[in-house]
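Question (not urgent): is this output format expected?
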Amino acid sequence: MNDRNGKALDVTYGVKENAGYTEEQFDAFWFDQKDTIEKTYLYNAIALFILVDNVEQVTLNMSSKDEPSVTFKRKKLEKELPHPFKKYKDDTAFWQKELVDGVVKSKKKRQDVYKAFPMQK
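Got this back:
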């Protein structure tokens, strides 16, 4: 979808018919630990911003309407990270160490990010 400021992506997670796994398996992955959604949304947003240069905004949500959604904006999220997105593009080990281990898996850092980008119910 296009907007005046560049590109926005809207990603919805859910179980497709004939997906080979059940709604229960889907729910067990996403909802057994409350941090799973936070970690997955943040990881996927960071990955999209690193890999797709012209995406300015990413919205992540679930197909079931009572689950949280979040919208990340590129420039604002980048300020929460140790380095600009482009620094991670060609160095997956650096990306893993700084962003996955250092931000996504760190409860404190993750909470800092979600203060800037509150989940919407």
